[in-house]
Amino acid sequence: MAEKAVKAKKEKIPRQPMPEQEPQVRARNFEEVPLGYTPETAMEEAKRCLQCKKPACIAGCPVEVDIPGFIKLIKEGDFTASIRNLWSKNSLPAVCGRVCPQEIQCEVVCIVGKKGDPVAIGNLERFAADYERAHGSGALPPRAKLTGKKVAVVGSGPSGLTVAGDLIAKGHEVTVLEAFHKPGGVLVYGIPEFRLPKEIVFQEVNFLERQGVKVECNAVVGRTVSLDELFVEEGYDAVYIGVGAGLPRFLNIPGENLIGILSANEYLTRANLMKAYMFPEVDTPIPRGKNVIVLGAGNVTMDSARTARRLGADKVRVVYRRSRDEMPARTAEIHHAEEEGIEFFLLTNPTKYLGNEQGRLTGMVCLKMELGEPDDSGRRRPVPIQGSEFELECDLCIVAVGSGANPLLTQSTPDMQLNNWGYIEADPETGKTTKKGVWAGGDIVTGAATVILAMGAGRKAADSIHQYLTWGW
Amino acid sequence: MFKIIKREEMAEGTVVLNEVEAPKIARKAKPGQFVILKANEEGERIPLTMAETDPENGTITIVYMIVGKSTALFKTLQVGDSYQDVIGPLGKPTEIEKIGNVVCVGGGTGIAVMHPITRALKEGGNHITAIVGSRTKDLLILEEKMKQASHELLICTDDGSYGREGFVTEALKDVLDKGDTQMVVAIGPVPMMKFVSKMTAEYGVKTIVSLNPIMVDGTGMCGGCRVTVNGQTKFACVDGPEFDGHKVDYDELMLRLQAYCEDEKRCYDDFCLLKPEYAR
Ligand SMILES: Cc1cc2nc3c(=O)[nH]c(=O)nc-3n(C[C@H](O)[C@H](O)[C@H](O)COP(=O)(O)OP(=O)(O)OC[C@H]3O[C@@H](n4cnc5c(N)ncnc54)[C@H](O)[C@@H]3O)c2cc1C
Ligand code: SF4
Ligand code: FES
């Protein structure tokens, strides 16, 4: 009887809502939208976890974070032990708690979610990391005896940073080479401030630097230095390539070079890396459209649309050729976008851009689509409806329809095998490429994917690199 | 940080030369390649083709005209000051081959970019006629260097204050009329490259131009630098900056260069109010 009462009480705790900036307010600023749990709400939410014997959530996590473990420690108020637990599997919990698609990974399989809302695993992860940043000792993790081996990590995105962190702890010398003038990869140039404050990324990089990782910016591998020179001239023993999928895809339809059509990469790089939303306090400008269309339906699309809104657009429309069910963005981002008044034009495909004599964009011609048979990706293929052309007006269009493999580095290394799409061939278990001493992982192997998959690949590769440096290829 | 070790003003202070410490870039750079520079934390990333590289001393030289806020800000940097960021070498180098008689046409700061290419073509065994132009005598730069890098130097000024009066295209026409030119390289303002290419197309002479669209990363990541060449979209930062002059859509390039003209003007005007001594 007593036990039953406790159980009933347990079920009553509702999922603790995440406090957020009001949509009308946040649509005009670049500050973070979710404000984070307080220790009290975090402990309350942590109570909802049933501490399953066979936790489905762990199986759903690409890096197998000990989810019930870190949640239990939050429940007990031992936040320091909780973050330690998280770190043992995930070196960037403050980032992952914010940007992982929990709704298709750990939370979707959470038992509590079978009847009602799942445990807010992402929010709790974020809480533990934020609490540590604000209150932690900042003590460095222990470092193994120095090995005298040198590793170069090319690219400072989540994948490269994970490798750097793991290998520095194992006693190797690690240098991260980054093409941009600031480290962080997509976390810095792509994902906006209002979703992932840049300060968090810089602190993570700084944490690595304090452990001894050297970060060299403005180093374009393939131009400033070649992959082979890293071995021959600079004396590295192993190289990890985590250069991301930095090649913007366009639609290749007439009028695409009109002024006012930008790739999401360019638009977001201007906004985030160059802080162009502060123009003219900073020198990099960014087009401020009044009537904006963003093409695509992924996280990049939502980020671009919400950035345009914050830069003062009256109207922001997302144009996507499939239906809502196929939209790949995180549910929370679609929801946030809608709250901010962004409209969705689904089953719509542009066929041509329209411009004026000054070469500036004025609109686009679109076709209505309907869903046909499933394609290779398992999603139903959109097919155009004959004669359904119509025009949409706009003065700015952000093309966020995906990205490909940037050939800058790979084209200069003929002895490293690529697949048909230009991505690097790497062993899924070890990250080894076909070139001796070279590993690769993250978006440059898988195509544009997620932060956590890029980190997972980095962790496996770091293990394999460590083995190589200890025992050989 | 990338320290400036030499600074010269030219063309009545409208053009500035900086020699900058950048050993890694200097070791790798080849004629025709460019760097991206950023003066400070708030600065914009500005692409400039290198005018000189010195691998032994580990320096590169850039020459820029004051056209807006960012170049005006560059101008404030003195010897001993540093650029926060310099990235490079970027773009494909000029293809240096022995072709025969080559005409190198340079206008404005394009002359500075043209200089190492001219020299390399000469060293590569070609006979070089160089044609350089400016609006007026006092704005002409690098005359002496271009003389040394070529076999014959023709100078044109729009107002006739020095050398031949008129545009570089007029001098070029005379050279082309001789009928022994195998290749023309033209670097300068877009209209100049457009008219040079138009003329050489009539003569059927192969022409190389170096394009300068707006860029962000310089590594093929953003597509901001796209230009239409032979009806196809190319990224100037990785596919160029040099292209077949007869195939470039110059009108589109000129329009695209205007993308931020209002923002640039605003930014520049603000700067000039603060530092009138550095205005152009
Ligand atoms: C706008 C946007 C939003 C996203 N939102 C989410 C999200 O909410 N959740 C999620 O899980 N994922 C999201 N993603 C995807 C996620 O960011 C990527 O999958 C992840 O960052 C890939 O990591 P990476 O380490 O492989 O590469 P990247 O993060 O792309 O980092 C690669 C780095 O390498 C550098 N580099 C490239 N070439 C060279 C070279 N030749 N020499 C030296 N350095 C080089 C690049 O400048 C870059 O800094 C988003 C992506 C974008 C663009
Ligand atoms: S599945 Fe849900 S309830 Fe079970 S351990 Fe994981 S988070 Fe807790
Ligand atoms: S400058 Fe970004 S792709 Fe060329």
Q: How would you describe the overall organization of this protein?
A:
The complex is a heterodimer of chains A (about 475) and B (about 280). Chain A is globular, with a radius of gyration of 23 Å. The longest helix of chain A has 21 residues, at about 450-470. With about 475 residues, chain A is of the alpha/beta class. Chain A contains 19 helices and 16 strands. In chain A, the strands form four sheets. Chain A has a five-stranded parallel beta sheet with strand order 3-2-1-4-16. Chain A has a five-stranded parallel beta sheet with strand order 6-14-7-8-9. In chain A, helix 5 (about 65-75) packs antiparallel against helix 6 (about 80-85), helix 5 (about 65-75) crosses helix 9 and helix 7 runs antiparallel to helix 9. In chain A, helix 10 links the parallel strand 1 (about 150-155) and strand 2. Residues about 1-5 of chain A have low confidence and may be disordered. Chain A has helices at about 1-10, 25, 40-45, 55-60, 65-75, 80-85, 95-100, 105-110, 120-135, 160-170, 185-190, 200-210, 225-230, 265-275, 300-310, 330-340, 405-410, 445, 450-470, and strands at about 150-155, 175, 215, 240, 245-250, 260-265, 290-295, 315-320, 345, 350-355, 360-375, 380-385, 390-395, 395-400, 405, 440. With about 280 residues, chain B is of the alpha/beta class. Chain B has two domains: about 1-90, Translation factors (Elongation Factor Tu (Ef-tu), domain 3); about 100-280, Rossmann fold. In chain B, about 30% of the residues lie in helices and about 30% in strands. Chain B has helices at about 25-30, 70-75, 110-125, 145-150, 170-175, 190-205, 235-240, 250-255, 260-275; strands at about 1-10, 15-20, 35-40, 45-50, 50-55, 60-65, 80-85, 85-90, 100-105, 125-135, 150-155, 165, 185, 205-210, 225-230, 230-235, 240-245. Chain B has a seven-stranded mixed beta sheet with strand order 12-11-10-9-13-14-17, with helices on both faces. In chain B, strands 5-6-2-1-7 form a five-stranded antiparallel beta sheet. Chain B has a three-stranded antiparallel beta sheet with strand order 4-3-8. Chain B is globular, with a radius of gyration of 18 Å. The interface of A and B includes residues 223, 262, 282, 406 and 407 of A. The structure holds flavin-adenine dinucleotide (FAD), iron/sulfur cluster and FE2/S2 (inorganic) cluster (FES).
